[in-house]
Design goal:
Length: 95
């Protein structure tokens, strides 16, 4: 299975890595998505320009901000599955 990012999600990923140094957390979440990409379905659909609609899924990750503080579901990836591809459409990072 291949993992790809929309242009806006790719830009946000770079910004988050540069600002918050969460590359390891992002890699863990990417791996979890590739291992089981249909864990959590949303009630949303993502429409490509060709007119097809795809079910949107999401996976979240708890990010450790310090040795004592873990914030639940801080990093969330929204994605669609198209054949053997996973396409990240949006990233949410709540502080």
């Amino acid at each position: 299975m291949n993992l790809q990012y929309s242009p806006s999600a790719k830009e946000l990923k770079s910004e988050l890595i540069n600002e918050y140094s969460i590359l390891d957390e992002i890699k863990r979440l990417e791996k979890a998505i590739l291992d089981k990409p249909d864990i959590v379905k949303t009630n949303k659909y993502y429409q490509l320009s060709i007119g097809q609609k795809f079910k949107v899924y999401k996976r979240s990750y708890n990010v450790l901000l310090s040795s004592n503080i873990v914030i639940s579901n801080l990093l969330v990836f929204y994605f669609i599955k198209v054949k053997d591809n996973v396409f990240i459409t949006d990233i949410k990072f709540n502080i």
